Structure formats: structure tokens, C-alpha cells
Amino acid sequence: MTDFVEKPDGVEAIVTARAMSLGGLAIARVIPSLERRTVGPFVFLDHLGPAGLAPGAGFDVPPHPHIGLATVTWLFDGEVVHRDSLGVTQAIRPGEVNLMIAGRGVTHSERSSDHFRQHGGAMHGLQFWMGLPTALEDCPPTFEHRGSGELPEVHLGAATARVVLGEAFGARSPATTPSETLLVELRFGDDDEVRIPAQKEAALYVAAGSATLGGTRYQAGTMIVLAPGTTVTITGADQSLVALFGGAPLDGGRRFMDWNFVASSKERLQQAREDWKAQRFPKIPGDDREFVPYPEPRR
Fold it and tell me: Is 91 exposed, middle or buried (0-12, 13-18, 19+ CB in 10 A)?
């Protein structure tokens, strides 16, 4: 929610996240939305939590498929164990990034570790999907993990910027991206100002606390889409968390989405649906006893 209706200069759209649930965890869907379907190469953003999971509860998203996209998982609190049909098992914790390029097809699951499930704790994070350039839509799937010590952190007064993907504030992430991409975590002290450099396309998502831009204050759960090529200044309150993300728009025109599939053609989506329903996607070693069925439309 915002304190005022009018958008300040340099702001193209305001999006309020929509409450949903996933794997036993409350989430908020940010994009796609009616106000905005994409930002740069990003076609999807879910805000996970914040939530406290009791001992024994855990977080489980059973095996499910993807094509034509790259998933990016970024946590503020908690832990998730990623497993995929490439044979990768990788826990992700705050300050680390998992990037999986699905390409022509991959299956993965996301679950709490045994330790986290036993003891419980806070869960809070963001999950993004990026559409792939047309030349990479059918590439072999890959997985990349970067630890917290590998991702550069820049001090901007009392605020800090951790460059997760791409280049910003004079620092570059070592993570590989399939196209021109930017993802930065901004952590604020009390009333810190950060100047956001101009981007081809960019948005700010307030994940915790609040942030002020152009005299308008935005609460957690709000995405502020910036006008292309605009430089703005954002002020964060004490302990605010803001994600800056965007990049260059995807080549080849519009991307179509169906469930967990992204493609530049509807025919490719149809083939992915049929392949998943027929269980022709590869299995996950050690996690192949259940799967998420394709959600057939209601009649």
C-alpha cells in the first residue's frame, strides 16, 4: 500500500503483491500482475514469508518441471534444500544465491533440511524467474550456486548493497546470467538515501520495512517500477530491505507462461504440458516418489 495515490516523477507503475500459499508457506505474488507482466528479463517474482515455521512443520515443494526460464532464489532468513534432475543437491541460506537455467527441461524440488524441519525457524526470501533469450530456450539445463563470500557488498553510507546478479554501484557479481540482468539487495539503516542509477528497465521491491521515493512512502509488499533511463533516490527506514532488479528486455518479443513453463511459442508450452503429464521429464535422484501434478483448468 502507498500513503498517496499519485505516482512520483520517475515511477511508471505501482504493484501491490497478492497473498497466496506455496508448500505450506504464505507467499505474495508480485509479477506477473495486471499492472506489470515483466521487468527486464524477469517474468515472475514471489515473496516468500516472512513467516515462522514451528518445529516439525517444514517447507515442501515436491518435484515439478520448468522449461524456458532461469530460477533465482534469494533468502533473507531460513534455509531451503534444492534438488534437481541434474543430480544437484544444494542447500541455500541467507546471502547465497541459487541460479538454475531450465532450458529445454528440468525437474526440481525445494524442501526444508532435516535440521530446519526439526528445529523450525524464520523463512523469508524472494524467488524470481527470468525468461531466456530465444537462442537459449532449448539449451541443456544447468545449475550454479554462489556463496555469500563470493557476492560483493558495497557500503553506501549506513546502507549496504549486495550485488547478487549483474553490475551495480561499482561492483559485479560473479554469477552467470543468460542475458543482461540486475539484482541487488539493499539493506538500510535509519533514513539512509541511496541513488539508483538509470537502467533499461528496473523495479524496486520493498520486502521489509518501508521506503520513500519522491515524497511517497511505500510499505512492504510494494513494487515500484521505474521509468526507463530514470535516476531516482530512495530513502529506507531502519532495517528496511529492498530488492532492485531489472535489466534489458528479452529478445524475440513476448514470452508466454503456463504454470511453471515459459516459452516464446504456445506450441512449446503445449508440448511441455503433455510431457509432464506423461512423466517424460527427467526424475530427481533420491526425490522421485511424488510430484506436483499439472493443474488442469476447472470446468
Answer: middle
For position 195, what pLDDT does the model report? 95
CA distance 140 to 217: 44
Q: Cell 530514470 appears where? A: 230
Q: Measured between alpha carbons, how far is 187 from 194 in angstroms, rounded to an integer?
A: 10
In Å, what is the CA distance from 4 to each residue of 1, 210, 217, 218, 232? 9, 14, 8, 9, 18
Query: Which pTM was predicted?
Result: 0.94
Give the separation between CA 164 and CA 32, rounded to whole angstroms: 22
- Cα–Cα distance between 183 and 199 in angstroms, integer? 12
Task: Set out the domains of the chain in order of their start, with CATH numbers.
Answer: 11-276 (2.60.120.10)
Give Dmax over CA atoms of the chain in angstroms.
Answer: 56
Structural element, H or E, at residue 248 = none
